[in-house]
UniProtKB/TrEMBL annotation:
PANTHER family: TRANSCRIPTIONAL REGULATOR, GNTR FAMILY, UXU OPERON TRANSCRIPTIONAL REGULATOR. InterPro entries: GntR_C, TF_FadR/GntR_C, Tscrpt_reg_HTH_GntR, WH-like_DNA-bd_sf, WH_DNA-bd_sf. It comes from the Bacteria. This is FadR family transcriptional regulator. Residues 9-77 form the HTH gntR-type domain.
Length: 239
């Protein structure tokens, strides 16, 4: 049994949560002005430092806008204001490598199905071009990581779902930054690059043929296989 230490949440994080909940519930709307720093200190019964930390965090998240000489206002929430703090959280959080792959399975399996239903000719061509680069990399004994990323990027674009597209690419970009050494280990086995190329090729063919169920199954099999190999690589790194 592995037990983790209990951590007390910082005061400013609790303030951020409360204000975030008020926005989610519609009690605070875009354009609404927050109370002054002094009023917030009195209402929350905390220090000015905690209020300032909370305001800074909310501004970083894109939830509020601080206007010099005017006050602090709730911003219009858009895709960027949702995805940017997610990317930041993923970058600073530790021990989330395999959780990232779990999230990818949830998103990308569905994305493969949507792409099979919605992909247009130019998007199918984009997937094929990424595969061609992957094939050339294979012949030159290169890892082909960039082509791999571009292939999944093309599938995400072919879903025609802007939110899914941004979420998938946030996860993918974060994984490229945090799993560089593990991914290198993944490609060390001489048969792995060719195996991964074939898996991508079969996914491409299913999407091209507009076979959503097959595209989903092949994507799930692909991600599960990579996840298992990655788990082994991470375990070896930790030894």
């Amino acid at each position: 049994m592995i037990l983790k230490p209990i951590r007390t949440r910082k005061i400013y994080e609790q303030i951020v949560d409360q204000i975030g909940q008020l926005v989610a519930q519609g009690q605070l709307k875009p354009g609404d002005r927050l109370p002054s720093e002094r009023e917030l200190v009195e209402r929350f019964q905390v220090s000015r430092a905690s209020i300032r930390e909370a305001i800074s965090a909310l501004e970083l998240m894109g939830l509020i806008e601080v206007r010099s000489g005017e006050g602090t206002y709730i911003r219009q929430v858009n895709i960027e204001s949702v995805v940017t703090p997610l990317a930041w959280m993923l970058f600073i959080e530790k021990d989330t490598d395999l959780e990232l792959y779990e999230a990818r399975k949830i998103l990308e399996v569905q994305a493969a199905g949507l792409a099979a239903e919605r992909a247009e000719e130019n998007e199918i061509c984009e997937m094929f071009e990424a595969l061609e680069v992957m094939r050339r990399d294979l012949e030159l004994y290169h890892l082909g990581e960039e082509a791999d990323h571009n292939f999944h990027y093309a599938i995400a674009r072919a879903t025609h779902n802007k939110i899914l597209f941004r979420l998938m690419n946030t996860l993918s970009d974060t994984m490229r930054k945090t799993l560089k050494s593990s991914r290198s280990k993944l490609y060390e086995h001489k048969d792995t690059p060719e195996k991964l190329y074939r898996e991508h090729l079969f996914i491409y063919e299913a999407i091209k043929n507009h076979d959503a169920k097959k595209a989903q199954k092949l994507m799930l099999d692909h991600l599960v296989g990579v996840e298992n190999q990655l788990a082994k690589a991470i375990t070896l790194e930790g030894k």
